[in-house]
Amino acid sequence: MQRLGTGIGWRPEIADAVERMPGVDWVEVVAENVCPAHLPESLRRLRERGVTVVPHGVSLGLGGAERPDEGRLRALAERAEALGAPLVTEHIAFVRAGGPLTASDRLEAGHLLPVPRTRDGLDVLCENVRIAQEALPVPLAVENIAALLSWPDEELTEGQFLYELADRTGVRLLIDVANLHTNHVNQGEDPAKALAELPLEAIAYVHVAGGFERDGVWHDSHAHPVPRPVLDILTDLASRVRPPGVLLERDENFPDPAELEHELEAIREAVLRGGAGDEKLGGGVRRSVNAGGVNRSDSGGGVRRSVSGGGAEGDGMRGAEDTGADGVGPRDGGGRVGPREGEAARDTRGARQRLALGQTALLSALVAGTPAPQGVDRGRPGGQARAPAAKRADVVAKVAPELPVVLGSGYRAAFLAYAQRHPMRGGYRRDAMEFVESLLLAGRPQDAAARRELRAWWRERSGPAPRHHRPAVRAARAARRVLLGR
Question: Cβ distance 206 to 177 under 8 Å?
Answer without folding.
Answer: yes
